[in-house]
Amino acid sequence: MASDGQKVVLITGCSSGIGLRVAVLLAKDDRKRYHVIATMRDTKRKDKLLEAAGDTYGKTLTLQTLDVCSEESVKQCINSIKDRRVDILINNAGIGLLGPVESISIEEMKKVFETNFFGMVRMIKEVMPDMKMRRSGHIIVMSSVMGLQGVVFNDVYTASKFAMEGFCESLAVQLLKFNVNVSMIEPGPVHTEFEVKMMQDVAKMEYPGADADTVRYFKDVYLPSSLDIFEAMGQSPEDIARCIKKVIE
Ligand code: NDP
């Protein structure tokens, strides 16, 4: 439980990558300013987080199950928090999807929106009324550079991040008078499981329906240059965690 003066921070998607690193960085804050509720949809994946959290686990960091695609799970999680008080919500959970539109079913596309867009909306809807009532709060949303610019064969993922941007830009204006801030984080490439999965997906990717020029551009120009950018400019999840800490301080 949070002690007096501590901010309650709830983070989604803490089993790996950025979410895990943000949770650990905030839990280890040397002034103990945060009580971190690290959430993940499957707590069988908790070992990496607990190992990194060390002796902060059970003190400044606690663990909760939360699947952002399930309204019941979201409600259960928030209701289990004392006074439903979340001072800082970090909407981090997200999935990618790569491939020509012709090869992706509507069901697969909906899954991306269910997680990235509606997952975020579910979280915000659940914490926002209490933040407005308390006239205090900060909502951090993990968008992407792809929330600002379209990228070939990333149509659906990009669309989900654009949707998040539009929703939050509109909401931010309405929440200002309640002293609730909304901040978007828009990372470029980050070395996480997300990146590993994307590279595996690329390796087995097929291109039914896509025209030869686009496939050639993707394989011969876009992919090699992306790999170079990853190599030269790719950030670590710790970099993004430090950036988020600065935003909330
Ligand atoms: P990871 O794949 O390492 O982390 C994604 C996290 O989201 C995992 O913990 C995963 O949990 C969780 N998750 C997926 N679906 C759900 C769900 N339904 N409910 C709750 N949690 C869920 O990737 P990153 O750390 O890189 O990604 C974090 C965020 O950063 C994402 O929103 C991504 O779009 C964004 N981002 C990533 C970039 C990158 O290059 N890596 C660049 C820009 C933005 P589980 O273990 O259960 O699958």
Automatic annotation (TrEMBL):
- Keyword NADP recorded: yes
Any one GO cellular component localisation term in the record: cytosol
Q: What is its EC number?
A: 1.1.1.300
Subcellular location(s): the record lists:
Membrane
Please name the GO terms of the biological process aspect recorded for this protein, alphabetically.
estrogen biosynthetic process
Coarse class of the primary localization is membrane
Entry keywords, A to Z = Lipid metabolism, Membrane, NADP, Oxidoreductase, Sensory transduction
**Active site, UniProt feature:** 157
An example molecular function term from Gene Ontology annotations:
all-trans-retinol dehydrogenase (NADP+) activity
Catalysis performed (reactions): all-trans-retinol + NADP(+) = all-trans-retinal + NADPH + H(+)
Q: Does the keyword Endoplasmic reticulum apply?
A: no
Which residues are recorded as binding substrate?
144
Q: Where does NADP(+) bind?
A: 13-41, 67, 161
The task this protein performs is described as: Retinol dehydrogenase with a clear preference for NADP. Converts all-trans-retinal to all-trans-retinol. May play a role in the regeneration of visual pigment at high light intensity.
Provide the family line: Belongs to the short-chain dehydrogenases/reductases (SDR) family.
**Protein name as it appears in the record:** Retinol dehydrogenase
Q: Provide the gene name from the record.
A: RDH8
Full-protein interval shown: 1 to 249 of 317
